[in-house]
Specification:
The complex is a heterodimer. Chain A is mostly beta strands. Helix content of chain A is 0%, strand content 52%. In chain A, a hairpin with a 5-residue loop joins strand 7 and strand 8. Chain B is 0% helix and 59% strand. Chain B has no helices and eleven strands. In chain B, strand 9 and strand 10 form a beta hairpin. Chain B is globular. Chain B is mostly beta strands. Classes of the chains: A mainly beta, B mainly beta. At the A-B interface, strand 4, strand 5 and strand 10 of A face strand 4, strand 5, strand 9 and strand 10 of B.
Chain lengths: 116, 110
């Protein structure tokens, strides 16, 4: 099976702009999670989607939003970009079985966002 | 609250020695504990995981041990090699989200 893919791989934006990142999960996986990775904060959970529904979200401002489509592909959007949003944004997919979260997650290569 | 503490933050070992990284979690309901390895500029890759119904799992030079009573789990790497140099993350999933440790930068000195 093909792995998790993310587009674009690199983005440069300026403050105040908005950006949309895309994630295509492994075929058959229905859960997609998004993470922000920075040198100082490690891997921070943004949100998780399963069957087009957001099941959990992390402690990020409302400028960060996401959605999932019926084919399980997911997008995340960041509006009104700030310098501090510069980071590697990773998505991860998993089968998304029911119950407490015990699925193995598989990561995409990430999108490197630079805000100038 | 939800928390995973990981120690040490950096670890340097001589090639051939063993390395141990420890994580402590807060929610006793957690029952799955993966470890990821992230090389520079690459995505995190799952290297080993353990579920709460076992106390230890091995895969060649890598092992993970789990102590549910103390709520901690550890990664053990034996006979370290230069290619083991990377950042290692532990995680404890809770209610549809993964809580990751802050990472351990392992350097294997030749």
């Amino acid at each position: 099976k093909a792995g998790v893919t993310q587009t674009p791989r690199y983005l440069i934006k300026t403050r105040g702009q908005q950006v949309t990142l895309s994630c295509s999960p492994i075929s058959g996986h229905r859960s997609v999670s998004w993470y922000q990775q920075t040198p100082g904060q490690g891997l921070q959970f943004l949100f998780e989607y399963f069957s087009e529904t957001q099941r959990n979200k992390g402690n990020f401002p409302g400028r960060f939003s996401g959605r999932q489509f019926s084919n399980s592909r997911s997008e995340m959007n960041v509006s009104t970009l700030e310098l501090g949003d510069s980071a590697l944004y990773l998505c991860a997919s998993s089968p998304g079985l029911a119950g407490r979260y015990t699925d193995t997650q598989y990561f995409g290569p990430g999108t490197r966002l630079t805000v100038l | 609250g939800e928390n995973v503490e990981q120690h040490p933050s950096t670890l340097s070992v001589q090639e051939g020695d063993s390395a141990v990284i420890k994580c402590t979690y807060s929610d006793s309901a957690s029952n799955y504990f993966p470890w990821y390895k992230q090389e520079l500029g690459k995505r995190p890759q799952l290297i080993i995981d353990i579920r709460s119904n076992v106390g230890e799992k091995k895969d060649q030079r890598i092992a993970v041990t789990l102590n549910k009573t103390a709520k901690h789990f550890s990664l053990h790497i034996t006979e370290t090699q230069p290619e083991d140099s990377a950042v290692y993350f532990c995680a404890a999933p809770l209610a549809y989200k993964y809580i990751f440790g802050t990472g351990t930068r392992l350097k294997v000195l030749a």
